[in-house]
Amino acid sequence: MKCSCCHEEYCETLTLIDFFSSFRGRCFRCQQLFRPIKNRQCCLGCGRETSEKICKDCQQWQAQLGFLIGNRALFHYDDGFAQWIEDYKYKGDYRLKSAFAREIHYQLKQVKQTIICPLPISPERFESRGFNQVSGCLAAAKIDYQELLLRPTNDLPQANKKRLARLKLPQPFVMRVSSEKIKNKKIILIDDVYTTGRTLYHGAELLLKNGAKSVTSFTFAR
Predict the structure, then answer these.
(1) What does the alpha-carbon distance between residue 182 and residue 125 come to, in Å, rounded to a whole number?
(2) Residue 31: how many CA atoms within 13 Å on its side-chain side?
(3) What does the alpha-carbon distance between residue 189 and residue 179 come to, in Å, rounded to a whole number?
């Protein structure tokens, strides 16, 4: 079979579940690129793997905003994941959207009666890149989602900003739908990487202000 990440042929020992799955796995080399986070040992706020129940950064978010976004992430943001996101997001290799579709599908298909919402990118960013990297992965994982937010203006990529600059960013989103569409709804925001959490909390604040019952988040890496 072909690897979902590098698309090279490889041999894999399949479980019965894998045999009937429509998602391809990863070859041994690509499997090593992604180091899973052990959710039993992670912060309840951001999903960072730690011995602390709530890390110091999330304690600050809780004190500042009065809530935690309860992020869960699949993988550590290390050199392997950074290489994947460089090739997929910045170099535009759209084939890589399927790299861990199986894991995304497994995590999000367990969620019931909840709206799944990818964070948007600006029109300028979409025009230059040609796709929203988060929506692409959700589509590859066969996850239904709704676009609830818009990002009207462009900005420097978050990766180019230091932590303090990220935390001072103004609200970048506006509502794409009416408040009635999300009133008393549970929502999960999806992003590629949780860094400081500022972007996700911006999205959560706006949705809660417009009547959402609760907002949590899920990211591919932390």
Answers:
(1) 26
(2) 9
(3) 16
- Paired residues of 2 in beta bridges: 9
Fold category of 37-77+104-221 in CATH? Rossmann fold (3.40.50)
CA distance 165 to 103: 32
Between CA 30 and CA 147 the distance in angstroms is 31
Residues 147-163: pLDDT tens digits? Answer: 999 999 977 565 556 66
Is the CB of residue 217 less than 8 Å from the CB of residue 200?
yes
The pLDDT of residue 1: 78
For 189, phi then psi, to 5°, come to: -85, 140
Q: List Cβ neighbours of 151 (8 Å cut-off, separation of 6 or more).
A: 119, 120, 121, 122, 172, 173
Decide if 71 contacts 196 (C-beta within 8 A).
Answer: no
Report the phi/psi class of residue 197: left, alpha or beta, with left for phi > 0 and alpha for psi in -120 to 50.
left
DSSP alpha helix (H) spans, 109-212: 123-129, 133-140, 163-167, 179-182, 198-209
Residue 207 has pLDDT above 90, yes or no: yes
Q: How many residues does the chain have?
A: 222
